[in-house]
């Protein structure tokens, strides 16, 4: 459920939810500030609340989003519905802040290693960064989807344009692009094979793609 849906789409989705026909209903935390959303949820059957990217509730973190604080209403309005808060980027201090701000004082904490055996870490001296990147993509990951992170918005656009000119399908992604363009590029990345997104850290949170 999000603001891009038109009236008919939203009504259809609400009807499915109330009829118990949905396995999962995705909501942005901002919508929990709306009485209409809370009223809808109160009329349906809910098995569990899953709060993803829960580190966004931590006020000292760079990903802090004030609307995540509204998620504490879930425990207040639905005390008998289980809640699970998930994040891949939380210190012990963040764990404590998450449970406190979400009103989950008795929550059990499950922590796994940050090591990802399917990820290879490599440090390479730079000589000609663009050519090195192009060679890496073409010789080691031809046809693969990928994300190239840059420090500036300008760099994302220049590198995406350079890769596209040299046979690698690439699009930029940064907070300076309008919302429609960002959404379109993200949708392409999730849908298509072999697309490279050249991005700032604005891209990545909530992305679930198995073949990156």
TrEMBL record:
Class of this enzyme: isomerase
Enzyme Commission (EC) number: 5.6.2.4
Stretches assigned to the Helicase ATP-binding domain: 1-108
Stored PROSITE patterns: HELICASE_ATP_BIND_1 (PS51192), HELICASE_CTER (PS51194)
Reaction equations catalysed: Couples ATP hydrolysis with the unwinding of duplex DNA by translocating in the 3'-5' direction
GO biological process: DNA recombination; DNA repair
Domain Helicase C-terminal residues, every copy: 129-212
Keyword Nucleotide-binding among UniProt keywords: yes
GO cellular component terms listed in the entry, alphabetical order: bacterial nucleoid; cytoplasm; replisome
One Gene Ontology MF term: ATP binding
Pfam families, sorted: DEAD, Helicase_C
Keywords: ATP-binding, DNA-binding, Helicase, Hydrolase, Isomerase, Nucleotide-binding
InterPro entries, per database record: DEAD/DEAH_box_helicase_dom (IPR011545), DNA_helicase_ATP-dep_RecQ (IPR004589), Helicase_ATP-bd (IPR014001), Helicase_C-like (IPR001650), P-loop_NTPase (IPR027417)
NCBIfam families to which the protein is assigned, alphabetical: recQ_fam
Homology family: Belongs to the helicase family. RecQ subfamily.
Identification of the protein by name: DNA 3'-5' helicase
Taxonomic placement: Bacteria, Bacillati, Actinomycetota, Actinomycetes, Kitasatosporales
């Amino acid at each position: 459920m999000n603001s891009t849906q038109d009236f008919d789409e939203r009504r259809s989705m609400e009807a499915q939810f109330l009829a118990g026909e949905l396995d999962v209903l995705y909501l942005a935390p901002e919508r929990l500030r709306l009485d209409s959303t809370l009223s809808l949820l109160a009329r349906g059957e809910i098995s569990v609340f899953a709060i993803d990217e829960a580190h966004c509730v931590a006020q000292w973190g760079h990903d802090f989003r004030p609307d995540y604080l509204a998620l504490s209403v879930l425990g207040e309005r639905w005390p008998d519905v289980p809640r699970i808060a998930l994040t891949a980027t939380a210190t012990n201090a963040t764990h404590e802040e998450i449970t406190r701000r979400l009103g989950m004082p008795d929550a059990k904490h499950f922590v796994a290693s940050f090591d990802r055996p399917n990820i290879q870490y490599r440090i390479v001296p730079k000589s000609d960064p663009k050519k090195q990147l192009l060679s890496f993509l073409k010789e080691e990951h031809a046809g693969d989807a990928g994300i190239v992170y840059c420090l500036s918005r300008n760099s994302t656009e220049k590198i995406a344009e350079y890769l596209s000119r040299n046979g690698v399908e690439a699009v930029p992604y940064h907070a300076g692009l309008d919302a429609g363009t960002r959404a379109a590029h993200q949708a392409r990345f999730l849908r298509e094979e072999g697309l490279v997104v050249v991005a700032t850290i604005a891209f990545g949170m909530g992305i679930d793609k198995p073949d990156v």
